[in-house]
Write a structure and sequence with these properties.
Layout: E1 3-6, H1 11-22, E2 28-31, E3 38-40, H2 49-53, E4 58-61, H3 69-82, E5 89-95, H4 104-117, E6 123-128, H5 132-140, E7 148-150, E8 154-155, H6 160-173, E9 177-178, E10 188-189, H7 190-200, E11 207-209, H8 215-221, H9 237-243
Parallel strand pairs: 1-2, 1-4, 2-3, 4-5, 5-6, 6-9, 7-11
Antiparallel strand pairs: 8-10
């Protein structure tokens, strides 16, 4: 099986590449850089995509442009459709709640989903909750503040490695369409996660919940970022903190 990974040098990408190799799939990793294990191409301009896609069965599209997810996804789809022979299957990673939470970044992810669905190519879409590392980064960014501020809603973070595992399962299964959303093993308030962050670092700062108005926060408070039912992930946020 020939697999191309976009975004393969990022947090999720590295974990996904490692899991592909663990099941004896040596993927091509698309990058604007040159180096061992990389195939050079640019999703922003389309340069190198034809060569990168040559002979590929499945594309794991993990790259994010933050402000231009739709643009880079369209470039990939155009290159995939232009390729002769059997079209590759696109496996795309998205975020739980992109259709209900009015964040600009989420709107871009939703637009990319819709472009893939309407592309005429075989595809699989997977939405996951936020990674443990994102929750940690939110608190780490406040290291100079006298208190630790938590947003007024709950979250269900998941380990990037567990999302990578599910992506590899989708590659092997050949499933198409939207897969079931996946989330972490526990739903806690952001304040509780902040307290766990403090405990892991023997911090003494108080954790305070910040009241934030607006439609985006209302959507998070309504639980649109959560996955009901049995969780897919097993590693808790506290276990993630302890691991590093």
């Amino acid at each position: 099986m020939n697999v191309l990974v976009t975004g393969g040098t990022g947090n999720l990408g590295r974990a996904t590449v490692a899991r592909l190799r663990a099941v004896d799939i040596e993927p091509r990793v698309l990058s604007r850089k040159h180096g061992p294990g990389l195939i050079t191409g640019d999703l922003r301009t389309g340069d190198g995509l034809a060569a990168a896609l040559d002979g590929v069965d499945t594309v794991l599209h993990l790259a994010t442009g933050y402000r231009n997810d739709l643009d880079i996804t369209r470039a990939l789809l155009d290159a995939a459709r232009a390729r002769g022979g059997t079209a590759p299957r696109i496996v795309y990673i998205s975020i739980v709640g992109v259709d209900a939470i009015p964040l600009g970044y989420y709107r871009g992810k939703l637009a990319a989903e819709r472009a893939i669905e309407g592309s005429g190519l075989p595809f699989a879409l997977l939405r996951a909750t936020q990674f443990h590392t994102l929750i940690e980064q939110i608190f780490r960014a406040q290291r100079v503040l006298p208190v630790l501020v938590a947003p007024p809603f709950s979250a269900q973070p998941i380990a990037a490695g567990e999302v990578a595992q599910r992506l590899v399962e989708l590659v092997h299964s050949g499933a198409t369409g939207r897969a079931a959303d996946i989330g972490g093993p526990e739903v806690r308030t952001a304040r509780e996660f902040g307290e766990q962050y403090q405990a892991a670092r023997s911090g003494r700062r108080a954790v305070r919940t910040l009241s934030i108005p607006g439609a985006t926060v209302r959507a998070f408070r309504a639980g649109h970022n959560l996955v009901p039912g049995a969780p897919y992930g097993r590693q808790t946020f506290a276990e993630s903190l302890a691991a590093h």
